[in-house]
Amino acid sequence: MERIPFLGAALRRLDLDALAAWTGPLQPATARRIVARLNADRALDAVTGTPTATPARLPLPGELLALSLLHEAAHLAIVEAARRQPQAALAAAVPAVRQSLGADEADALLNEFADAFPGVEKPADLRLEDLLLVHLANANPAAAPLVELVDEGVLPADTLAAAIQALERHQASIPIDPDATGAGGARSLLDLLREPARQSPDSLTGQLRYVREHWGWLLGDALTQITDRLDIAIGVLTQEEHGLHMRFGAGAGGGGVGAGGGEAPSFVGAEVESERFSTDLDWMPRLVLLAKSTYVWLDQLSKQHGREIRTLDAIPDEELAAIAARGVTGLWLIGLWQRSTASQRIKRLRGNADAVASAYSLDDYRIADDLGGENALADLRTRAWAHGIRMASDMVPNHMGLDSHWVIEHPERFIAVDEPPFPAYRFEGRNVADDPRIEIRIEDHYWNDTDAAVVFERRDTATGERRYLYHGNDGTSFPWNDTAQLDFAKAEVREVVIETILDVARRFPVIRFDAAMVLAKKHVERLWYPEPGAGGAIPSRAEHAIPRAAFDRLMPDEFWREVVDRIAAEAPDTLLLAEAFWLLEGYFVRTLGMHRVYNSAFMHMIRDEDNAGYRKVIRETVEFDPAILGRFVNFLTNPDEETAIEQFGTGDKYFGAATLLATLPGLPMVGHGQVEGFTEKYGMEFQRARLNETPNAELIGQFDALIVPLLRERQRFAGSVDFRLYDVVADGGGLVEDVFAYSNGLGPDRSLVVYHNRHASTAGWIRESVPFAVKHGDGSKEMRRDVLADALELRGSGDGWLRLRDRRSGLESLRSIGEIRDRGLYVALGAYECLVLDELREVASTAEAPWAALAAEIGSRRGVPSLDKALADFVRARAPAAPGRLPALDSEALRAWLDERTANHDFRGHALVWRAGEPVFRFSGGSASRAHGVAVNDATRFAVASITKMVTATAALRLVERGLLDLHRPLVEVLPPEHRPVAMTAEHTLHHLLSHTSGLANYHDDNDQTWASFTSAWDRIPTYHVRRPADMLPLFRDLPAFAPPGTVYTYGDANFILAGLAIEAVTGKPYADVMAEEVLEPAGMVDSGFFELDEDPPRLATGYLTTDEPPDRWRSNIYGVTRAGMPDGGVITSPIDLAHLIDALLGGRLLGPELALAMRTPQGPPSDAIEQYGYGCELVVQDGRVTILGHGGSDPGVSAMLTHHLDGATTIVVLCNQDRGASAATKHIAAALGLHDPR
After folding, report:
1. Measuring CA to CA, how many Å separate 386 from each of 316, 318, 330?
2. Are residues 840 and 925 located together in one domain of the fold?
3. Which one of 357, 543, 593, 758 is CB 3.0 to 4.6 Å from 343, fit for a cystine?
4. Domain range holding 123?
């Protein structure tokens, strides 16, 4: 028999006696019924509640379908083999079997077989054929779950084995085709029949594929006859093996696809697709879309205004005005259409008593009655347009509500079957339809969340006809259980949907298409009409597979291309926006012609700080076709995702991401509650908010100040023609992937946006763009890169200057055009810091407008409130001196004053005045070494004590710029436990150390600079043991903190010992080596270093302790100096080198602009004091402005002052090798220069 025979006992036990007389091919529906009965029979024992004996797993319907087809193919192979080689016919083998077993025993076996397996035909050769094939099924490992249906165990085992052996002996010497011995991997007929199971012992799918691919030489046209059914069986089984029949959950309700994930758009293979962008009308690039969940918003407005606002025409004008004032030009009201009553009933019966129907389960495309209907929409549309706001609406083309008018009146428009596709489906629950013409029932297991059926039942009450319509489904999760799937393989369905879209377009100039990707032609095919053997994504659709050519005849063109073309012809003033994922973003706008398409990668990747990933998205887009970038819809939230506040917070990251949203090409979409700071995600069935949230006034204020001005200028950012994305390159040459830097413009206006999407500090240079495609009229394209100077259309030469304004901070800054051309624009950014640089203006430095001198004065600062005012102040400060002030330095008088101080032993050392890179005045006086009779001279070097802190801080900040250190990272994550004071907590950071705000104890009293104070510090550790910073720790490691970090400024040397340890920890190098590499060498401090003092460094002045004794009795400090220079005060240097240090810091050669500015900005708690502290830098602050920076140094035998007057661009260095003299000399020199030092 052609069909596989089933064991009669099994059929009777399963109540399937009717199958005994069954003929013809096994159909998928029949296979499902058989397997359902089989699996039910293997359920839990009704008495004990324990499982009955079952195979390792339950069988699948597709496996039974496959086994039946293998039987049929084997039957055809036997027939064809007999035709080719008559000796191979089983009729010829019957005598051999009889001879081997004896005629009576052989006939008895065949008769027993026919009795046990109803339907087996009577001729002996045909019974032997079926016996053989049943035996092969029993021996097939992949068929084990089905063995009880074909169990040969009812036959005498020995006799059966002898019969099979006799048959094998007879066939072994008969090649199937003498001219093709071994073809298909088989020599004899039995070899051939066993080969599929040998090749794929664990997969019936694999065995079917083997037959299709390797038996063609034998079966010929006979194989063609069963190929379609082979492919369907493969598809059904593949579908089942992948577990696509979802269980244990309920559908989420109409639409609301959340399958976009964070997948980045892809352009692989897109070159072969045609380019057919739709043309933007002038208003489209200016569109800023605000989404509102309609029912929730109306309820919120009712509470806000203290009156009922339930219909569209009741929305207050002042709300529309407020929306428009924020730069919003499009209002998307979610859920306007008349919704399915069945959807609401399902949700309420499932326990959600406050639910309305899903916004994506629609009854009809008319404005909902409870929202005021079409007249209310017309009123709102007119008033919104008066404020420049266009109305936007959803369109859900894929499906309708399961009780919609179309389901009632046009069931032929939907994908349906005559019987439930799975035997376990039951439709005995409540009718959820109101219309008496039909009854609608969803599958029973939905009600208790034990299954999610792919169909629902529609019963025509007039005729009693039952049809099973598929739910809407995108194949990624559960079906949408309150929807009915339209059949887009039908031309009449596509036409009626297009006509509906055109009707919507006449009322809404912006249409958002929900789940648009499911109607791309390849996905209609994949989901609903898969190719034979492909399996498909929707359970049960594999059996409805059709060849690609047949599907192409049903759906010859892309549905969306038809929509776009019809809209262009009949409603051209309409913007079409597609919610599309699955790597189709570029295809939807470039080939299908949608005006805009969702870009979910923006939200996911910026949220997750996959910055390299999203920079790659932008880079690959502009490399393929920059126009696509301008068609993206970017958002921080959408109705299917968590709120913007949940994903981005309310701090700098939120506003940085919002700045990207407002300034990247494309269409920015703002979510419901995003501006107000709401945290609740509103479901599609919400009729009111469930949380009582109050608008966050502070967040709203910041949004209005930082983001709204950008949204109001949307057109300058929306395009992609002049968009350039830049690589940011660190000083060391590495790419800074965490920074997004891009320029854009409209006409002559250009802007540069820079955002650091990471909780860390970073810095780098912006010079060259990533490659981008430039298209030519003949369809070709070339790849180009732009440098920043050209993209900003700078025309100035190397000596010109560029004025920039950061609209986020309001500060203006100056940058050298020559530097921008050669190296780029330097940026140093903190955590989630953002710059929006615009109002770019080139200026030339002249005598009347000395911009170059002003730039040197303000150094590499972020900026000043007004460059014009800064220039005016700068020029005024350098005007000729007023009467009574010395117009120039009286060098002789100053020298005489210092000579007198030296003679009185109030000065011993060197004084230097430095301006514009050269000495203006120098003086040396007193002895460098009294013992050796050496006087101080220009080559003498000095210990400068705490001036060292400027060197240490500079090195630390350079490591911060390179990411090795972080000003705000807990020090406990940097310092090993043995290098931490016991009072150090996770709150202590490098910022606290460099600014003396740690609150940690010092190792001596800085207010007591006496001999006794310093010598007492070394009672426990001899100074000659101190060679590395760690050797200092025992002096203060166990002391308690005196204040919490950041609360008070208290100068303490121990802070810089710890800073030195942090530097060693991250570099793995000795502190002194790092200082040489990071500061001394780059600054040109060639006569400076950290020396082992017992090596007697050359030209070092001996430090003398001043006492009440006569000067010739003053003692040298040999006990209070550590063996090697420490981070708090150990550098040996010269006046010239210290002047070079100041020049290097102010000239931007050591630090980038942000940290150079931070170093000379007060870092302690707010204070009105004149003397304040930055990072390793003492400051004088007058009228809120830093006027003097530098550092002093004081130790027994050391008095040093390094002072730079910003107003006079003058550095004063006074170094003394005795413990007094530097301060008085510094003040006197400043006065002689006409400079004011208020200390």
Report:
1. 13, 12, 12
2. no
3. 357
4. 8-241
